[in-house]
Design brief:
By secondary structure, the protein is an alpha/beta fold. A hairpin with a 2-residue loop joins strand 1 and strand 2. It has three domains: about 130 residues, no CATH class; about 170 residues, Ribonuclease H-like superfamily/Ribonuclease H (Nucleotidyltransferase, domain 5); about 80 residues, no CATH class. Helix 17 packs antiparallel against helix 19. The chain has a six-stranded mixed β-sheet. The protein starts with a helix and ends in a 6-residue tail after the last helix. The protein contains 19 helices and six strands. It binds zinc ion.
């Protein structure tokens, strides 16, 4: 069978289904005077996007063909127009910036990369902290019994563990008491992209390893209690469905301890409650996190950080496309950066879309698209461009004086469009919403 043909068929089927769904939505939108901006985004993300991206890793190759890409972009345009309540002449590039929805082709590549990060092991530049494959799970009968909070009267060893993550790094600290004396203190460092949970779990592994080698006569009672302030870790350890790599490592180590006659229990301890052992472990973990003298001994990245990197990369790609695209000049004046746009929460209404794209019911627009023969504003002082409406139109002077007053509180008037949306978003939006295009 011709594979290209199959992909093409598939894409045609999916895009057709989405188009029908969106038509249904737009009919509903007319009846209810528009589904709210945020609700449309939710519908897109929960209903349309999964359809568009279903099976993406299998047929991503088909996206190399312009024909298929255009079909996808067309669907995104439809939903973007509904979401932004924008004019149909607006470019998809501007629409994506307006709605904050990642351009569909970039989104698709992102999904494929996320999928590959999860599935294709060993091909990553750095190892990832996957869940352990089910074929490597120990038989439940051989698995360790993680006991929490059991009161053991005579303890040979008491240990406190802690993890720390800050912008300086990730560290684990443990302190082991024998009797009332500190027997061992251990600090380790992990890759700075590792999570705090991983640091907590690494600390526990260190305690278990150290406990096994403690010099205690074999015929003596060998009981140890490990204190952690990480509720998540304790719950994960006791959850038989959790097969994360480090959790498995802890269980594996615990399972070997009875061989050397050790009995281990775990307990939760409240953090920052002045308990000396916890304080000490916390201090060691923090020291380890910022130390440059301790070697990094753990560098399996959590999947969450891999996700985060891939998403950041998507934004970078988007930014590059946005910068190089020759369309949407008007929108670019407000948002030169896609990344900056994503940090903002803006409710897009018809007025907002019109003023941020230049595609709206202004006479300049109508003239541009040859719907009217004159671009002039009814104030007869100039063409009714977006700039005229923001800075000059005398019919908007009352509202503008409020905007000007607010802007000059922490800036200068006139402020350019980028500054207006960056520093004075609320006041600019209030101004835009006050414009009555029916009267202009
Ligand atoms: Zn005017």
């Amino acid at each position: 069978m011709d594979h290209k043909f199959t992909f093409k068929d598939h894409i045609a089927y999916v895009t057709d289904r989405c188009a029908k769904l969106i038509h249904g939505l737009s009919r509903a939108a007319k009846v209810t005077w528009g589904i709210k901006h945020e609700a449309m985004k939710t519908i897109y993300k929960s209903a349309i996007l999964p359809l568009l991206l279903y099976g993406a890793p299998v047929w991503i190759e088909a996206m190399k063909h312009e024909y298929n890409r255009r079909k996808y972009i067309k669907i995104q345009r439809m939903i973007n127009i509904l979401t932004a309540k924008a004019f149909r002449t607006t470019s998809n590039e501007a629409l994506c910036i307006l709605t904050g929805l990642t351009p569909i082709i970039i989104k698709k590549e992102e999904v494929v990369r996320l999928y590959n990060a999860r599935k294709i092991r060993g091909s990553q530049p750095q190892e990832i902290d996957y869940a352990v494959d089910y074929k490597n799970w120990p038989h439940p009968a051989d698995g360790a019994f993680i006991i929490e909070g059991e009161d053991t009267k005579e303890l040979t060893v008491l240990a406190y563990t802690d993890g720390s993550k800050s912008r300086l790094g990730v560290g684990s600290g443990t302190v082991i008491y024998k009797g009332n004396k500190i027997a061992t203190q251990i600090t380790t460092r992990s890759d700075s992209k590792c999570s705090n949970n991983q640091a907590e779990e690494n600390a526990i592994i260190k305690v278990l390893e150290a406990t096994a080698t403690l010099n205690i006569p074999e015929n003596n009672l060998r009981t140890a209690k490990v204190y952690t302030d990480s509720r998540v870790t304790l719950d994960s350890l006791q959850n038989p469905r959790n097969h994360a790599y480090l959790i498995k490592e802890i269980r594996k180590t615990v399972a070997t301890l009875p061989e050397s006659n050790w009995k281990i229990t775990f307990s939760w301890v409240k953090a920052h409650a002045g308990i000396p052992g916890n304080k000490k472990a916390d201090k060691l973990a923090k020291e380890a996190a910022r130390s440059r003298l301790i070697d990094i001994t753990y560098s399996r990245l959590p999947l969450s950080s891999v996700h985060h990197d891939i998403q950041l990369d998507s934004i970078k790609r988007w930014q590059k496309e946005w910068q190089t695209c020759t369309k949407a000049q008007k929108t670019k004046q407000y948002f030169p950066s896609a990344e900056e746009r994503l940090k903002k929460k803006i409710i897009i209404t018809q007025n907002v879309a019109a003023m941020l794209t230049g595609h709206g019911r202004t006479t300049a627009y109508l003239h541009w698209f040859k719907i009217s023969d004159n671009a002039q504003c009814i104030c007869v002082q100039g063409d009714q461009m977006v700039e005229h409406l923001i800075y000059d139109c005398i019919l908007l002077e009352t509202q503008r004086s409020t905007l000007r007053m607010n802007v000059t509180k922490n800036g200068q008037w006139p402020a350019d469009k980028h500054e207006l949306i960056t520093k004075h978003q609320k006041h600019l939006i209030d101004y835009i919403e006050s414009i009555d295009f029916d009267k202009l």
